[in-house]
Amino acid sequence: MDRFILGIKKSQSQRFDETGSRVAVTTIETAPNYLLDIKLSAKNGYSAIYSRIPI
């Protein structure tokens, strides 16, 4: 299964590492997510992930 971060892209920038090389940086705002269900194409005919963000 793939791993991912669910969030909103806030900004894109650059930083420099200790050798002076430029490194691209993306800031992502995340919130707690609860995985409710996984639908698989072999069983359900489609693939989907159902999640919920607590409010």
Structure description:
Helices cover 7% and strands 55% of the residues. A hairpin with a 5-residue loop joins strand 1 and strand 2. The protein has one domain. The model has no long low-confidence stretch (mean pLDDT 87). It has one helix and four strands; from the N terminus they run E-E-E-H-E. The two termini are 27 Å apart. Strands 1-2 form a two-stranded antiparallel sheet. Strands 3-4 form a two-stranded antiparallel ribbon. It is mostly beta strands. It is elongated and about 50 Å long.
In short:
The chain has one helix at 41-44, and strands spanning 7-16, 22-30, 34-39, 48-52. The model has no long low-confidence stretch (mean pLDDT 87). It has one helix and four strands; from the N terminus they run E-E-E-H-E.
Provide the residue-averaged pLDDT: 87
Give the amount of beta strand, in percent. over 45%
Number of helical elements: 1
Strand order of the largest sheet: 1-2
- Taking pLDDT < 50 over at least 5 consecutive residues as the criterion, the unreliable ranges are none
The radius of gyration computed from the alpha-carbon positions, rounded to a whole number of angstroms, is 17 Å
Distance between the termini: 27 Å
The description of the largest β-sheet is: 2 strands, antiparallel
Overall geometric form: elongated
How many domains would you count in the coordinates?
1
Helical fraction: under 10%
Order of helices and strands: EEEHE
Secondary structure: number of strands: 4
Q: Please state the structural category.
A: mainly beta
